[in-house]
Amino acid sequence: MINASLPELRRALDARQISSVELASLFLDRIDALNPELNAFITVDRDGALAAARAADERIAAGTAGALTGIPLAHKDVFCTEGVLTTCGSKMLSNFVSPYDAHVVSLLKAAGVVSLGKANMDEFAMGSSNESSYYGAVKNPWNTARVPGGSSGGSAAAVAARLAPIATGTDTGGSVRQPAAFCGITGIKPTYGLVSRYGMIAYASSLDQGGAFGASAEDCALLLSAMTGFDERDSTSLERPTEDYTAALAAPASAKPLEGLRIGLPREFFAEGMADDVRAAVEAALDHYRALGATTVEVSLPNAKLAIPAYYVIAPAECSSNLSRFDGVRYGHRAADYGDLADMYSKSRAEGFGAEVKRRILVGTYVLSHGYYDAYYLQAQRLRRLIAQDFQAALQQCDVIAGPTTPTTAWALGQMADDPVQMYLSDIYTIAVNLAGLPGLSHPVGFGTDGLPVGLQLIGDYFAEARLLNAAHRFQQVTDWHACRPAAA
Amino acid sequence: MSRTDWEVVIGLEVHAQLNTASKIFSGASTAFGAEPNVQASAVDIALPGVLPVLNRGAVERAIRFGLAIGAHVADKSVFARKNYFYPDLPKGYQISQMDLPVVVGGAITIRVGEGEQAYEKTVRLTRAHLEEDAGKSLHEDFHGMTGIDLNRAGTPLLEIVSEPDMRSSAEAVAYARALHALVRWIDICDGNMQEGSFRCDANVSVRKKGATEFGTRREIKNLNSFRFLQQAIDYEVQWQIDTIEDGGRIQQATVLFDPDTGETRMMRSKEDAHDYRYFPDPDLLPLMISDEWKARVQAAMPELPGAMKARFMDAWGLSAYDATTLTASKEVADFYQATVSAAGAALAKPCANWVMGDLAARLNKAELDIGASPVSPAQLAGLVARIADNTISNAIAKKVFEALWNGEGTTADEVIDKQGLKQVTDTGAIEAMIDEVLAANQKSVDEFRAGKEKAFNALVGQVMKASKGKASPAQVNELLKKKLGA
Predict the structure, then answer these.
(1) CA-CA 20 to 30 A from A439: which of A240, B200, B281, B485?
(2) Residue B27 at interface with chain A, using a CB cutoff of 8 Å
(3) Which residues contact B30 (CB under 8 A, 6 or more apart)?
(4) B148 contacts in A (CB within 8 Å)?
């Protein structure tokens, strides 16, 4: 059951081979056993999970179960959960029990999903290694001396180690795709605006987007279908009908199911910078895609190299403002001793935020300052438009864009601790996708020489989620990289 | 150097609270006076993860204002974040508009002064933009701590910025009054200054007459009455002139007016000014206003004071002064129009006199708004009609008015009947009264015959008294003259 896919779990639940309570207990027990080592969860909500599982069992018994009723899941701790500690990986919110549910949380609750608890993450989703969490680093289940990626590292590690069959995440510059790649699972970040941001604690509002983790594209499709949908409480939510991303997946397998699919390979992604073992795995995966009927064509994203500097102006600018509400006045951490108001602010924030968050707040405050705004913020917005135009031009020549998700496999814990810029550069392939607002998916395509997973990234045009998921699903029907499990699990 | 060598330059920034039922970015109520923090939603207190959603009612009011002042209503405007820390600003930023405001330009015509000295002037507006209000910090009653009330946080405001077109405190007050009347006229703001629904900031500078450059300005913050606006500007102007004449320089600053001392004092200098780090709010899409939306708002627009004033002059023959006074507020104009519509257009002028004269004076004495007048437009119209058809004299009319005010009758006719106030027009009856008066006042008769005109008036008075005021004064005059052979 631990390794079962969502359709298998569905069948088992519906056939009463296992109850939802038993299934939740199975995963809760695994969390008890493995989480002390992996640190994938900040909060385990055993009581809440069992209560939700009992309710799910009643729905199943009543015959009113949906696709996800009774399925356990981990929520990234960026999502507000009513009555449950919601820390966002920060000391600042170490005492914050949310009085309300994020839109995504309430959608999944309504679907009968059983939340096991809150997954660890980089503090306020800022980081690529999950080492900036106030609650300690998450360990990569494939090698506990390695990072799981970030910022949704706890979600990815939990799914990879089968502490939960599926998990939610958020992706601002690669925070779903990169940890999915590092942990050998599948993760999708949809088009900006498809998943409501209401109740998702903001890092960089114009880039943040909720996403889904699963062992396979099919599991991701099931979860994503339940997460998307217009929400009037989010002004950037897109008003369009919800889609069933599993529909395309149901078509019968054939010898060349991807016949006619044109895959664009950006010259810039395949140039220097990619590790040899990553390259080998990606090239082999592309051969599989061609064998499935797809054709490949070289495309160009000439401004992609500007994505990192543009991102590290826009995201800190937005975060410097978004995180101003954490001031110790109404909730969250307040310094124990302080003099005047300014002292309360500075002490509370100095104590409540970690180094990476402070670094980005300072950068953001600087780039928005009088006299610098034009040179940094406005210039970065111009680059953002150029990058989006590059993708549109490339997508004239192809249906999806493919390349490595990350330049290397997961690095060692502590390796980048003194070199934040080196860590920023590791997001070179994922960040541009957020700047353009496009959907992106990462799925496992093999292992590096160090035995750690390699991910392939597929990027589509706006609303091409079904196409990305179907392509990855067809790949996974004829390969078994997605079925590989770490020894720790 | 005297005051007359200086020219005063004033621009006003007015924060008008828009009268929407709910807040500009949340569904919480905007009603005034609730217990602290009961009208603050998750969005208003800026819980982690919450997002703003624009209230279209606030936008609709901004459009109405823009159209009413002949401004450009922007097809696209952008909400920006104004970043600063303060305990009653929950998000650590205020959502406002910076580079692209919803209303650009426009003008308001004001009438300044009284009587012969009165003149009209057009004040240009720079812009008006939508923003949210902050909460309130309460520094009393908390044993040295500060209390925070977030009921007001997120209340919609329209910040209306004028050009520096005003040249005296009188012009500034006339502009503020005209603006105040307009926002109530078009029903976008309740105008309640005590509750802070209409707050003025005045940018004040002085320069030598004939100078082309503006002087350095100081901004007086948060003036919540027209009287304080006038006092604050007058004090500030004199202070600036004195400072310069004493060899000092004006430093750009924000100042506060203390109503107790009548003085302005420095709040912060330009050096202490915040860097607000404005940038477009990524949580809100640009505000797009279609031509159709503007047309819908235009179609629902009430007749504006300028047009109404012209109509009163053209159709009803009122003077410019009367027409201006009667369109100074929506309530007065509504009352007047209702009175005329009951009395008939032919009586528009006497109706005007009553509304601006006796009614206004009585309301003033009772400290009542015209909307709360105990005498209704229909009652007043009935009264004016009885004067016009000579049923009662003006003097008696005042009695009837007072009776109506005190609820001693439902109509003028009823009061006149009940109290027997109908004018006496029977010549015989009046002549009889005259004979009695002449007989009892031989001394006055002699004086009159000796050439004292005043004595005639005394006799008229005596006859009127004898008639208990019910005789027609004109008739008494005529008959008395005849009797005296004058």
Answers:
(1) B281
(2) no
(3) B17, B19, B20, B21, B22, B23, B39, B155, B156
(4) 329-330
Task: Write the secondary structure of B394-412 as one string of H (helix), E (strand) and C (coil).
Answer: HHHHHHHHHHHHCCCCCCH
d(CA B460, CA B478): 10
pLDDT 10s digits, B366-391: 999 999 999 999 999 999 999 998 88
Cross-chain CB nearest to B53 (options A205, A232, A369): A232
Give the Cα separation of A195 and A367 in Å (integer): 29
Residues of A with a catalytic annotation lie at 76, 151, 175
Q: How many residues does chain A have?
A: 489
Supply the DSSP symbol for B54.
-
Given an 8 Å threshold on Cβ–Cβ distance, is A205 in contact with B283?
yes
Give A309→chain B minimum CA distance, Å: 18
Q: What is the ipTM of this complex?
A: 0.96
- Measuring CA to CA, which residue among A8, A53, A58 is closest to residue A27? A53
- A72 pLDDT band, cuts 50/70/90, is very high
Alpha helices in A261-337 (DSSP H): 276-291, 307-322
Interface mutation vs chain A, best among B83, B277, B278, most A CBs within 10 Å: B277
Hey, which CATH number is domain B427-484, 1.10.10.410, 2.60.40.1180, 3.20.20.70, 1.10.10.60?
1.10.10.410
The domain ranges of chain B are 3-293, 303-418, 427-484
CB B409 within 8 A of CB B421: no
Instruction: Give the β-pairing of A72-76 and A166-170.
Output: parallel
Note whether B271 contacts A: Cβ–Cβ < 8 A.
no
Distance from CA of B276 to the nearest CA of A (A): 8
Instruction: Tell me if B418 sits within 8 A of B439, measured CB to CB.
Output: no
Mean pLDDT of B291-309: 96
Closest CA relative to residue A172, chosen from A109, A126, A214 = A126
Distance from CA of A368 to the nearest CA of B (A): 5
CATH code assigned to A6-258+465-483: 3.90.1300.10
Instruction: Identify the burial level of A212 via C-beta atoms within 10 angstroms of its C-beta, where 0-12 means exposed, 13-18 middle and 19 or more buried.
Output: buried
Residues in chain B: 486
Using pLDDT thresholds of 50, 70 and 90, give the confidence band for residue A489: low
CA distance B133 to B113: 34
Alpha helical stretches, state H, B135-201? 169-185
B135 interface with A at CB cutoff 8 Å:
no
Please judge whether A100 and B51 are an interchain contact, meaning their C-beta atoms are less than 8 angstroms apart: no
Substitution target in A235, A311, A369 with the highest count of B β-carbons within 10 Å is A235
* Residues from chain A contacting residue B81 (CB–CB below 8 Å): 321
Q: Which of residues 326-345 of B touch A (CB under 8 A)?
A: none
Which residues of chain B have a CB within 8 Å of the CB of A379?
none
Between the CA of residue B202 and those of B66, B156, B165, B180, B197, what are the distances in Å? Answer: 21, 21, 12, 15, 16
> Could you report the per-residue pLDDT of A38-54, keeping only the tens digit for each?
999 999 999 999 999 99
Give the minimum alpha-carbon distance from B71 to chain A in angstroms, rounded to a whole number. 28
pLDDT over threshold 80, residue A83: yes
Instruction: Please report, for chain A, the start and end positions of each structural domain, with discontinuous segments joined by +.
Output: 6-258+465-483
